[in-house]
Every structure is written in C-alpha cells, then in structure tokens.
Amino acid sequence: MNDTVDKLVIFLAKRDGIDKLVKTFQYVSKLVHWQVETTHLDVANRFKQWEVASGLSRKAFRTGRFLTGFNALRRNPGSTPTFKLLAVLANAGEMVYFFFDHFLWLSRIGTLDAKLARRMSFISAFGESFGYIFFIVSDFIIMKEGLEAERKLIALTEEDSKDAKEKIRKIRADRMMRMMAVAANIADLIIAVADIEPNPFCNHAVTLGISGLVSAWAGWYRNWPS
After folding, report:
1. Where are the chain's structural domains?
2. Where are the transmembrane segments (predicted)?
C-alpha cells in the first residue's frame, strides 16, 4: 500500500502525470455528459463545465511544452538517417501542435479574439496529426526490429542463458511501452482528425470519450514509476 502511495506521489509530481489525470477527468465528464444530457439536463451541464475546465487547465499545464521537441532532437536525433528524418518530422509536428495550442487556449479564455480559436485549433490539430503519424511509423519500425532481434536471441542462445534472458526481457518491456505509445498516438490522432475534418464518427461523444481515455490511460501506464 505504501509503495503504491509513493508511486502515486511521484507520478503526480510530473507534469505528464497531472496531465493524464486531468485528461481522465476531461473525457470521463464528456461521456457522462453525453449519457445524461437528455434525462438530467442540470447534471449534464455540470459535467460539461467540468469537461471544459479540464481541457482549458490542461492547455495551461502545457505552456512551453513545444520546447521539449527541441530537447528530444538534441538528446536523441536518431541512430540512422531514416530515424533522424522520422524524428525531425514527428517532433516538428508536435512542436507546431503545442505552440499553436497556446494561442488556442488564450482565445478560448478571452485574452485573444475568440474568432481566432477555430483557426488556431485547425493549425494545432494539423501539426498534432502530422507528428503522430511519424511517431507511429517510428514505433512500428522499432518494434519490428525488436521482434527480429528477439527471434535471433531465442534461436542462437541457450535457453538458460541469463544474458539472453535479460536482453529478451528488455526488448519485450520496450515493445510494451511502444505499444502503449502507438495506442495513445492513434487515439489522439482520431481526436485531432475531429478538429481538422469534422465527421459523424470522429466527432461523436463516445468516439472522443473512449479515444481520450485510451490516450490518458496509455500515458498513465508509460509514466507510472517502475
């Protein structure tokens, strides 16, 4: 019990940890609002206010977040020309997303002209989608390489080799983290598409709610202290 509490404290001390918790509030309240809006209007309005407040507070938490893209490229530009290109494209899209998200937030809270909100939302969502596509491609390539390396280790080493077991364990742990990243990125891509090109499927409250929770909980898993 104490270990779980300690991990929760560490998790919530991170900006990403707080973001995933508030994102959970945001999309749970969206689903509750959709569920009760025709039967309990007062309750639906309260949950709608919670959803909006959570979304705006997340944007405030992300102030300056676009700079993490520069840091990611500086620390890990990629091991091959292909991965360097994918990293540049992915992080460039994410930087556009977070940068214009600042203006979207300011227009939503009334500091900037509210008419800018739609344009800022489109640019931000377009950059987000662009970046996620290349993050997903990179993770799939790395997972494929990991599977090939795992098969070689299993085929060429003794089953009781401690070194081989440790390498396989690391490959599998990395693959799980990348699967969580892919799930989160696909879910966020659906949410971004709802802003870029509104359509009945992506813009449905259930689609957005489930996508938001998948993204939040996959991020929760990735950021939870080991």
Report:
1. 2-223
2. 83-100, 120-142, 176-194, 206-224
